[in-house]
Amino acid sequence: MDCCAHEGPGGGDARFDIKKVADGIWAAVASPAYKVNCNTAIIENSDGVMVVDTHSKPSAARVIVEQLRDLTSKPVRYVVNTHFHWDHWHGNEVYPQAYPDAEIVTNDITREAMVKKGLKRIQDHVRQVPSEIAKLKADIQSASPAQRAKLEADLKLAESYLAEVRALKPALPTIAFERTMKLYRRDREIQLLHLGRAHTEGDVFVYLPKEKVVITGDALIGWTPYMGDGYPEDWAGTLDRLAQLDFTHIIMGHGDVTGREWLDGFRSYVADMVETVRQEVATGATLDEVKQRVIAKLAPRHEKTFATYNDYRPWRIGAAANVERTFAMVS
Ligand SMILES: [Zn+2]
Questions:
Q1: In the predicted model, is pLDDT for residue 247 greater than 90?
Q2: 239: Cβ–Cβ under 8 A, 6 or more apart, which residues?
Q3: Taking Cα atoms as reference points, which of 161, 274, 205 lies closest to residue 41?
Q4: What's the pLDDT at 187?
Q5: What is the mean pLDDT of residues 293-316?
Q6: What is the pLDDT of residue 170?
Q7: At what angle do helices 119-141 and 145-166 cross, to 10 degrees?
Q8: Is the pTM of this model over 0.85?
């Protein structure tokens, strides 16, 4: 009997597509899930492996550790966190457990954000997920048969997430750098860069100049950006500095591997959104009016850009939240 067919490798429910991006460089692209997982970039060096970002829970990172073994027998030496959000570092603890010499690396700003905000948010999740579970249970009671299966799957994921977040042993970075850190390996150079504020105050970009690959965290994703901790007015400028780098492949925080063309469409949405909010705020409009008008103005130009993941992360909902954040910052 195949008791565990619903589970991924390592007993985790997270699913990843491993895609080769260049020699020794892979993207583990996370499938959309009720509790979102980020992508992981895997970089094999002469003396060990670097992975970038560790998902929303340890079991997801364990799936990667297991899949890594099919790619290389080398140990993980470096784990990079691109920013302090839960879905990018809650799996950290898995790596020092599996590889005792693994160092966790980020910049000063992001490490401090993990200490000051990230740890507190773990406690918030422990407190909040039970009411989320209660709501899912209530929704299941009143659901149509068609909705029920999805809600029941979500409930299962919420319950397993709660168990994991309760047991989390947050592993903070063991190395923090100020602006830039460069690793020179026999076969490659890896740059960890801070290009300014965007998705968070401390976004880290990982750049491989020889292979022309960049890993962006959530400063660039495959659906509408999340700006809840972000700096909408700085974002496009940070992406302009990114655009000055020479690369052909982008491994984003979420969504499929892409090329430079995605940067243009994404940047133009962010810049247009901020500019349109500014114009509407200048008329003295209320938040609700600004939301409505900005979305109406942006939809013809930008809604189709974000169509791929629209069922999972609808553009209109994301854009409304972006407008709200920007409104608060420019008012
Ligand atoms: Zn994020």
A1: yes
A2: 198, 219, 220, 263, 266, 267, 270
A3: 205
A4: 82
A5: 95
A6: 96
A7: 150
A8: yes
Distance, CA 4 to ligand 1 centroid (Å)? 31
Distance 10 CA to ligand 1 centre (A): 25
Q: Tell me what the mean pLDDT of segment 163-190 comes to.
A: 95
Nearest-CA neighbor of 320 among 264, 273, 282?
273
DSSP string, 70-110: HH-SSPEEEEE-SSS-HHHHTTTTHHHHH-TT-EEEEEHHH
Identity of residue 312: Y
Q: What is the phi/psi pair of residue 193, to 5°? A: -125, 145
Token couple for 169: 């042993």
* 26 Ramachandran zone, left/alpha/beta (phi>0; psi -120 to 50): beta
Q: Which residues are 279's β-sheet partners?
A: none
Distance CA 168, CA 26 (A): 27
Q: Is the pLDDT of residue 90 over 60?
A: yes
Ligand 1 mean position to 199 CA, how many Å? Answer: 7
Q: Ligand 1 center to residue 47 CA distance, Å?
A: 30
Task: Kindly report the average pLDDT of the chain as a whole number.
Answer: 94
The 10s digit of each residue's pLDDT in 2-26 is 344 344 445 688 999 999 999 999 9
Q: What do you get for the CA distance between the two ends of the chain, in Å?
A: 61
Among 13, 14, 17, 21, smallest CA distance to 44 is for 21
CA atoms of 159 and 304, how far apart (whole Å): 34
Amino acid 3: pLDDT: 40
